Amino acid sequence: MAIASGSLNPTASDELAQCVADLVTCGSLEICTQGVRDAREVASLLPVGSRVYVNHLPRRTLMDSLPTLKAAHESGLEPVPHLSARRIGSRDELRSFLVRAVNDAGVRRVLLIGGDEPKPLGPYPDSVALLRDGMLALAGIREIGIAGYPEGHPFVPRAALERAMADKLALAAEQGLSTHIVTQFSFAPARVIEFCADLSRRAPGVPVYVGMAGPTQPSTLLKFAQRCGVSASLRALSAEGMKLVRLVTHTAPDDQLVALARYCLAHADCNVVGTHFYTFGGVIQTAEWMRRVIEAPATAG
Questions:
Q1: Domain that residue 36 falls in
Q2: Is residue 209 part of a domain?
Q3: CA 169, 206, 265: angle at the middle one, nearest 5?
Q4: Helix (H) or strand (E) holding 53
Q5: Tell me, what CATH number does 259's domain have?
């Protein structure tokens, strides 16, 4: 069986090939706020019930994402809105959005992130404060996603990140909310696996979705890597056993998928359950690639 760029060759074990496909089958991808058409096309490519995370970017309100959330839900996907705490202007804005999202778009899960606004636009300085407010559970949200950072955060110390994750897990449990973790993408598989191994000790039983950069152009990939604070792994590629040219010609995260699958198969306590793909505007390209990976074991058989 072989996937997109041939990281798995025809002699790869059936178990490894199936694990790769399963990680993507249980995976999700990110679409933009104004992605109504994308949501409908993605639904034609991915399994029913696949999660699509709708981002919450600067200069966009939460309500701007509602048409895309509704389109995803009506197409058989599961919509998961980002809630960027520092970009929410008021409690009323959050309350109104949650009521509409739950009632009109079937939203049951959200992804909590801080948002990189220099100054909060409203009452929530971070995602812990948003969760502590208690409005999510009252509105009908049943599960929260928590961001994980294998390479750290460009503005937040690692100790603060770990403390915030512990606080969110505790608050969610108090409010009867389930949790899952979605990691930022990285170009260094060993760093990601080390981070996942640490999560299996700190947060056993909490499902983890490993973030990866979907198929994209090298220039776009590098731009987002620098913006998202993962440029440290650009310098670490040689130490990870990958050549710089592999990054410069990156088209799909095959090597990372294989490394992750090997880790999952080797560790019974692994709580990685799927992947999450950052699409950088290439939503349909990523969904098409995901479909090829999902179907690969059956095709090889």
A1: 14-296
A2: yes
A3: 155
A4: strand 51-54
A5: 3.20.20.220
Each residue of 258-269: pLDDT tens digit?
A: 999 999 999 989
CB–CB of 24/275 below 8 Å?
yes
The 10s digit of each residue's pLDDT in 175-228 is 999 999 999 888 778 888 999 999 999 999 999 999 998 886 655 556 555 554
Neighbours of 99 (CB within 10 A): 12
Nearest to 143 by CA among 188, 112, 97, 103: 112
Task: Round to whole Å and give the CA distance between 79 and 217.
Answer: 26
Specify the amino acid at residue 29.
L
d(CA 35, CA 32): 5
Two structure tokens written together for 126: 């971070």
Question: Given CA atoms 45, 41, 218, 193 in this order, what sign does their dihedral have?
Answer: negative
Asked if residues 165 and 146 have their Cβ atoms less than 8 Å apart, the reply is: yes
